[in-house]
Fold this sequence. Notes:
With about 550 residues, the chain is an alpha+beta fold. It has 3 domains: about 1-215; about 250-375, Signal transduction histidine kinase, dimerisation/phosphotransfer (DHp) domain (Helix Hairpins, Orthogonal Bundle), CATH 1.10.287; about 375-540, 2-Layer Sandwich (Heat Shock Protein 90), CATH 3.30.565. The protein is about 70% helix and about 10% strand. A hairpin with a 3-residue loop joins strand 8 and strand 9 (about 525-530). The radius of gyration is 58 Å and the shape is elongated.
Amino acid sequence: MFRLRLSLAFAVLVALVCIQAGFVYWGSNRVNDYAQHSRLASDILSELLELSASKQRLRVWASQQLMDANASPEVRDSQLARMQASTETLRQLARRDLSLWGGIAEREGVPIPPEVDQLVAVSDLLNDNIAAVRARLLKLAPLERGAEFASVWQELNEVFDKARGRDLRELINGAIERQRNVMPVARAATERGLDQLRQQAIGLAALTLAAAVLLALYLNQRLQRPLDRLLEGTQALRAGALDHRIALGSRDEFDRVAEHFNAMAAELQRHRLDADAARRRLEEAVLERTSELSAAHETLQQIDQRRRQLLADLSHELRTPATAIRGEAEIALRGADKPLAEYRQTLTRIVGGVKQLASVIDDLLLVAKAEADQLAMHFDTVDLQELLGDATEIAEALGARHNVRVQLEPPGAEVPAVTLQADADRLRQALVIVLDNAVRYSGSDGTVRVSWQLTDSRVQVVVADEGIGIDADELPKLFDRFVRGRRARLHRADGTGIGLSIAQAIVHAHYGRIGIASIPSHGTTVQIELPCHFSVRTQRT
């Protein structure tokens, strides 16, 4: 209901504004037409006077030419050009005036004044007159001695004043007189139109203002009571009284607003209850998380204890070769001079200890660089079969000391030659680390098998042993630094636990993956997957 009243009020105001705009538009067009007519009359009068003055100057030039008074051809051409320009301008102004009067006559139902058509006809005659004057003046020559001036001058006047048998002088003078009479009439019509437009605008504006005031008073009276109820409701909500509800009964849009307001209050009340419940749940969750953080703190303490143990193990690994080196040197220096061969043997054992110490240090540096993303790789094209062959030969030498066989198994009867973009030395190091672990944790007379196969554009290298295996709960931690499984520590006391972390860093640097699967007491399988390239030729194995 209130929306309908508001729409009707706006419709009334819009209608009044549109009516006012229509009257103003119509009146402004009318006044504009009269103003244009006044300006055209003034412009036409100016052009007629200019044309008459130019023709008079040509008469003077013609008399000077007849009397051989040094009449300049440039003056003649200049005046003819000015007459032509004035005639063209006069024609355009006359046609504009005719078009303007056509619109006025159609809108106000008045006839077009006859002088308007006459002016168009005069402008058309002037072109013929100018052409005749031009042709005659071009032929005009000074009079010979004894020639009669009056007859020649009369003939020239006929050319100047006649066109198509009509007296142009009379037509132009009449047109000038008519334009002089039209100008005050046009100005008076313009002023009357302006006065009428002003009165209409003032009257319609007063009517619109009165209607707006009446509608505003009416709408304000209809708005006051429902707005007061809504304001009371918002103040109650701000005070925290979420159970407050607005009374209904106006049967209009404000009733629907009040319904939505009451629904919002009910929703807020429900959300407050939910928030209280959520706060209680949050407090319970905080208590639970606190207990979890306590457990995590205990875990961190265990990890710190483990780190200390690892540092102790690492110190042992570094101390053992250092102690051996020191002992060999002290023995060599103790007592009397010894034979040269004995000194040579001592130095050989010292060099072995230094190599062992340097190997441990190199492993630690490689792990540190990998963690800092500073592991340098020198990629080149590497033949996979040749790389696996080199790594297998090194592993065979290691296995011979532990009575373990290492076998490189062919992938099939015919396979494509596979090349890798890799750092051959680093990748060989990773393979040797995996093979060394397989040999070390295999039993006597065990066998380590190395195989590979192609899958799409990747190659998968598999190293499988028949050794002690790894417990399932330790598999996710095998690539952590200094981690050694329970079975590994029982099988061999030596070892730093950083080999697999080094292998993983090298494989990842080659955009590959490494994974481990194991069955306790049955063996372990390591899978290394790398991107590769196939050549067109094939190789038989």
